[in-house]
Write a structure and sequence with these properties.
282 residues, alpha/beta, 8-stranded parallel beta barrel, 10 helices
Length: 282
């Protein structure tokens, strides 16, 4: 059974996000995701092709704080990040915040993770662009130790937990599911090796997400059925969405953005009708 989610990719600077969460749950949608970028550097050395994205990123709320507000007005809706940039997050404080949110939400959190693409932002956090994926992997491993072990211990090449280290138990055994949000050919192997799901953009991914993930699972001895394959920026027209469901995606994540709560609420209502139609036809 396919789940249907919205990612709030742009909203006014007010209390709109929890209103959208409550509306999404009431309309029968399954999950709400929020993006992240800690800050937008004032000066960048990179080419200016991301200028529009930079203006959008500058308006994002902190996703964990915002999802806590969303958890307070919902009871069933899954709550996720799409994605949390672990190159911009210190693992001990992040593990505590994630565990707190998972407990307070009743175990409804999904932690989407990635490295990011803004080199200057990573550098401001002491992270190197060339090491972003090894750093993300080690920070995930360190956080899992803090979520799962009574006396957490982790020593890697880039991350080492202090001794002794506090533990931060989560509501979900093993911690919240970790979904990687990225679109390079290296991602399927990463997902099969240490994650629980994949937020993929097929228009950006240069291969076949289904076949490549199946192959990576076979190579690493991972049961494909234990992983979630989520289509990011899912199409909002019936025919294309039905094709995505038929292709075997576990979750369709629709992007919504707008300058007013009314615009976003109308978008959520339309997507809920689409989801209901897809469920009925399935």
């Amino acid at each position: 059974m396919t789940d249907f989610a919205v990612c709030l990719a742009g909203h006014p600077h007010d209390d709109t996000p929890p209103r959208i969460a409550a509306a999404a749950e009431a309309a029968g949608l399954d999950a709400l995701f929020l993006p992240e970028n800690s800050h937008v550097p004032v000066a960048r050395r990179a080419p200016d092709k991301f200028r529009g994205d930079m203006r959008l990123l500058a308006r994002f709320y902190d996703p964990l704080v915002t999802l806590a507000a969303c958890a307070a007005v919902t009871t069933r809706l899954r709550l996720g990040t799409s994605v949390s940039l672990l190159t911009q997050r210190e693992p001990l404080a992040t593990a505590r915040a994630v565990a707190s949110l998972d407990q307070l939400s009743g175990g409804r959190l999904v932690l989407g993770v990635a490295g990011g693409f803004v080199r200057e932002a990573m550098a401001h956090h002491g992270s190197r662009f060339a090491q972003r994926w090894p750093l993300v992997r080690e920070r995930v491993a360190a956080m899992r130790a803090m979520w799962c072990e009574a006396e957490p211990a982790y020593r890697g090449e880039l991350v080492t937990l202090p001794t002794p280290c506090p533990s931060f138990p989560t509501r979900q055994p093993g911690g919240p599911p970790i979904w990687i949000g990225s679109n390079s050919l290296a991602v399927p192997a990463r997902v099969a090796a240490w994650a629980d799901g994949w937020l993929v953009r097929p228009d950006l991914y240069p291969g076949d997400p289904h076949a490549d993930l199946d192959r990576a699972c076979a190579e690493q001895g991972r049961e494909r059925a234990t992983l979630t394959l989520a289509l990011m920026d899912a199409p909002s027209n019936l025919r294309a969405a039905a094709q995505a469901v038929a292709a075997g995606y576990d979750v369709l994540v629709f992007l919504v953005r707008g300058d007013s709560a009314d615009t976003l609420l109308r978008a959520v209502d339309a997507l809920a009708l689409l989801a209901a139609r897809l469920r009925a036809d399935g």
